[in-house]
Design a protein that fits this description.
The chain is mostly beta strands and 332 residues long. The protein has five helices and 26 strands. The strands form seven sheets. Strands 1-8-3-4-5 form a five-stranded antiparallel β-sheet. A five-stranded antiparallel β-sheet has the order 9-17-11-12-13.
């Protein structure tokens, strides 16, 4: 066998191993579909594949408790108790024993999500993540072609461009290190909205750009000397989808056309007149229940179920008020 033939066989074997690794973790079948659908993408390593997992656990109030077995080292983890506790998030750019409450004006705090590990994450004893006997839902994301996590330091300028994302994001979440609320903006939103409750505020995330986004001089997103952590999402066929729909107030309404069965859905109303909340649901939840990011228990009549090509919503104004536009982020 010639050296050239041998090298080609080795290259083919290496490529097959990369794909085998991606599929073997059990969370990347959607990403594999994205390769075929997006021929312009260049996938060279397993790290290129966006991966997602979700699940639940029951709190035991033990410090440093490991939630493992998810199949990869996550870049973003979200946790929410089924009780009246605030949602919590941690990205790979956060250091030490720190994570971010996702509603209200609370700085990065210790003893919540303490670390991201090679196969999951650890939690402390705070009741928001590990109260004894409380059921918790979690969602874990591994960055890839459809997602990027990063950080930047505010400069207090009227506008600061955050670049190097690698794509034009369709949705951006910003988690301030200081006692400022976590916010988001998606393509088509008229302003920036809190993940918790509120009507939106101008001059926070000003635009979503070709290679990142631009923030204004609001202290929520660009206070001089303050650290900010961001998550940027981009649609990928069979993997991740952003879209909008208009509420009609009808119970049991199906929102379809995602192209996959979602395992995670985040909804946020584009409403500057009525205070509404971000709502999310994972595949690990059962029955007619969804989660807030605010300190409220899981509730019915929001995202009622996840379906083969979308999801079903109830009549609650946070997901289906008549004539209100809603932005969705769905992961398959």
């Amino acid at each position: 066998m010639s050296r050239g033939t041998t090298n080609r066989l080795l290259a083919a074997t290496a490529a097959a191993l990369v794909l085998g690794i991606a599929v073997s973790v059990g969370q990347t079948l959607g990403a594999f579909g994205s390769v075929a659908a997006n021929s312009g993408n260049s996938f060279t390593t397993a790290a290129d594949f966006f991966r997602f997992a979700s699940g639940s656990y029951t709190g035991n109030a033990t410090d440093g408790r490991t939630i493992g077995g998810i199949g990869f080292q996550p870049d973003l983890v979200l946790v929410k108790g089924n009780n009246a506790s605030v949602g919590v998030g941690r990205t790979a750019t956060m250091s030490g024993d720190l994570s971010k409450p996702l509603s209200g004006s609370t700085a990065l705090s210790a003893n919540w999500i303490q670390s991201l590990t090679t196969d999951g994450f650890t939690v402390g004893t705070n009741a928001a993540v590990n109260g004894n006997g409380v059921a918790y839902q979690w969602a874990a994301f591994d960055a890839g072609k459809e997602m990027k996590v990063g950080s930047y330091t505010g400069n207090g300028a009227a506008a600061q461009a955050i670049t190097g994302v690698g794509f034009q994001p369709e949705s951006v979440l910003i988690l301030p290190a200081t006692a400022r609320t976590a916010v988001m903006r998606s393509t088509g939103m008229t302003t920036t909205f809190p993940l918790g409750s509120g009507t939106g505020t101008a001059n926070e995330i000003n635009s979503l750009d070709a290679n990142g986004f631009t923030v204004g001089n609001s202290a929520v997103t660009n206070q001089n000397g303050t650290a900010y952590h961001y998550i940027a999402f981009d649609s990928g066929t069979g993997v991740l989808k952003t879209a909008t729909y208009t509420g009609n107030g009808t119970d049991g309404r199906g929102i379809s056309g995602l192209g996959f069965q979602p395992r995670f859905v985040l909804l946020r109303a584009n409403d500057t007149g009525t205070s509404r909340r971000g709502i999310w649901r994972t595949a690990s939840l059962t029955g007619d229940a969804s989660m807030n990011f605010t300190g409220a228990a899981n509730a019915a009549n929001l995202i009622q179920s996840l379906q083969s090509d979308g999801f079903q919503v109830g009549t609650d104004g946070n997901v289906n008020a008549s004539a209100t536009t809603y932005h969705l982020l769905a992961v398959g």
